[in-house]
Amino acid sequence: MGAVNGMKSKRMPRAVRERQMMDAAVRTFGQRGYRAASMDEIAELAGVSKPLVYLYLNSKEELFTACIRREAEALIVAVRAGAEPGLAADRQLWSGLAAFFTHTAENPDGWAILHRQARTHGEPFAAEVAAMRDEIVIFVTGLIGAAARERQHNPELAGRDVGGLAQALVGAAESLAGWANETEGVSAKEAAGTLMNFAWMGLGDLMKGQRWSPR
After folding, report:
1. Full-model pTM
2. Measured between alpha carbons, how far is 81 from 215 in angstroms, rounded to an integer?
3. Contact 65/112 with Cβ under 8 angstroms?
4. Which end of the chain is more exposed for a tag (fewer CB within 10 A), N or C?
5. 181, 191 in Cβ contact below 8 A?
6. How far apart are CA 200 and CA 214, in angstroms?
7. pLDDT per residue over 93-120, tens digit each?
């Protein structure tokens, strides 16, 4: 049986074989963690030999980094595709959030790598995730700034507060995604609606110049 599988894997196009290895690695790292995951386990799950895994990616660290980059790129693409151009800024933000929660729910192992594993094992893994997060924050910053200009209540908001608001919103989305994935029956649209109700209502007042003060 092993020889048959080996023959099949040799005939397989490189791109297909690499995808199989990456899929197996994401599943293993996501479910077992970086430290506990073994290259033997990844190779077995992918249906290839351990030397072949090392041939494509020289080390466990390189394989984990490749997984982070692949999952980060897929998440960014999903969020950008979800925020449909031409909609009002708040609708774009809502649809982008819905796409974010849909993607993280459909790819729990990839999200576990990005949200938990990569951040807890130091450099260079944390830097890869930080780069992804920065790109999403920049995108959200643009949407909030566009909303402020669109409503024309407080045009100065775009230059003063938008960056911090975007950071807070993305941080809340990350935490909420973890909760939604662990709570049965929470849909992506429900998670997006929860965050919009929490954040956008306050943003609406801020855009009107109504600021909270401890005084």
Report:
1. 0.83
2. 42
3. no
4. C
5. no
6. 21
7. 889 999 999 999 999 999 999 999 998 8
* Helix, strand, or coil (residue 49): coil
Of residues 155, 125, 136, 160, the one with CA closest to residue 29: 125
Residues 117-141 have pLDDT tens digits of: 998 888 889 999 999 999 999 999 8
10 Å CB burial of residue 23 (0-12, 13-18, 19+) is: middle
Q: CA-CA distance, 197 to 109, in Å (whole number)?
A: 28
Q: Which burial class, exposed, middle or buried, applies to 165 when counting CB atoms under 10 A from its CB (0-12, 13-18, 19+)?
A: buried
Residue with tokens 């796409």: 99
Tell me if 33 sits within 8 A of 117, measured CB to CB: yes
Q: Are 166 and 83 within 8 A, CB to CB?
A: no
What secondary structure letter does DSSP report for 121?
A: S
For residue 76, the model assigns a pLDDT of 96
pLDDT digits 0-9 by tens, 159-207: 567 888 889 999 999 999 989 988 999 999 999 988 888 877 666 665 5
**DSSP3 helix / strand / coil % (the chain, rounded to 5):** 80, 0, 20
Q: 187: helix, coil or strand?
A: coil
Token code pair at residue 132: 């992804």
Q: What is the Cα 6 distance to its own chain's centre? A: 34
